[in-house]
Design brief:
The protein is mostly helical. It has a single domain, classed as Ammonium transporter fold, CATH 1.10.3430. Helices cover 57% and strands 1% of the residues. A two-stranded antiparallel sheet has the order 1-2. The longest helix has 24 residues.
Length: 320
């Protein structure tokens, strides 16, 4: 008789939870975090810690003030803090990093209802706010391994994309250096190897679908080849790997359907290359993903599957 009992939906249940998904993302981000500390020294750990602590505290205080159930246990604030830190240069002042964390959690996430309600990526939006508010600190890059030379102050240099944009004739790091992270840039974007390892982990754990980052990277590669640019340099520099693997695959700010996600990823790739080639900024990943986040409702409408048995518009339903 127990088999005849009808319970309320959902009838199909999964052991997956938000906390487990966020924990998988944190694990996938660990290689890039370790790489950033090795490349940029202990100060990288400080910036990551400031961003994570600020995001967690901001969420805790904000939920208390709003008199809502506290959600710091789902670990989403930790993920936002790590991603924000990965989008910052090592030399940024910790108070600026903390300000970015407050913007990401309070303004972008909680003011729109909390996890699952924000329509743009919190970490990337906070980065854009910091770029607008503090342009000089956000575009000052430290030389890799500067801390090993006995100086407490970071020696600055140009990023590979900055060299390409300015056309100064300076030597761009080789492919191996770009792949291993021996180049200037934000904390979590320089080491492509660490990001790819994290991406493979997420694919194996079925947290993300490989079609999304692969489409993003393929579109960038195709446009680079057509434009006569160095394809590998375009793929291995800037925030492309970080954005394709960890930002363009965000559940909340990307389409639900696979078709929609592929359209979303292709749009990100096109916008990224347009900004890189014709924009005043050397990098376009942050802006491209945010712009495509805004278009998600329209992409979902375009890619929405038709109900089984429904007739095409303007045609009569076939009766059988």
């Amino acid at each position: 008789m127990d088999k005849l009992i009808v319970s309320s939906s959902p009838h199909l249940r999964s052991g997956t939870s938000t906390t487990k998904l966020m924990l998988d993302v944190i694990i996938a981000l660990v290689p890039a975090a370790i790489a950033s500390i090795v490349i940029f020294g202990p100060r990288a750990l400080l910036i990551i810690g400031v961003c994570v602590v600020t995001c967690v505290l901001s969420e805790y205080v904000c939920r208390k003030v709003m008199k809502r159930e506290n959600t710091i246990g789902d670990l989403s604030a930790v993920v936002t803090g790590m991603l924000l830190a990965f989008n910052l240069p090592v030399g940024i002042h910790p108070l600026m990093a903390a300000f970015g964390g407050i913007v990401a959690i309070v303004v972008v996430k909680q003011m729109f209802g909390g996890i699952g309600q924000n329509f743009v990526n919190p970490a990337l939006t906070a980065r854009i706010v910091l770029m607008s508010s503090f342009p000089s600190p956000m575009s000052t890059w430290a030389q890799p391994f500067y801390y090993l030379q006995g100086s407490a102050d970071a020696m600055t240099t140009a990023s590979p994309l900055g060299i390409l944009k300015e056309g100064s004739g300076a030597e761009i790091p080789g492919y191996l250096d770009l792949f291993l992270g021996n180049n200037a840039g934000c904390l979590g974007e320089t080491c492509s190897l660490a990001l790819i390892l994290g991406g493979i982990y997420l694919v194996v754990r079925k947290v993300i679908h490989p079609a999304v980052p692969l489409t993003y990277l393929a579109v960038v590669a195709a446009i680079s080849a057509i434009a006569g640019r160095d394809v590998l340099t375009e793929l291995l520099t800037g925030g492309l790997m970080l954005g394709a693997i960890f930002m363009a695959t965000d559940y909340t700010t990307t389409p639900i359907t696979l078709k929609g996600r592929i359209i979303f990823a292709a749009g990100c790739g096109i916008l990224t290359m347009l900004i890189r080639m014709f924009g005043s900024l050397p990098e376009g990943v942050s802006f491209s993903i945010i712009l495509m986040n805004i278009l998600v409702p329209y992409i979902e409408k375009l890619s929405r599957p038709k109900p089984f048995g429904s007739a095409a518009k303007g045609k009569e339903r076939v009766k059988g």
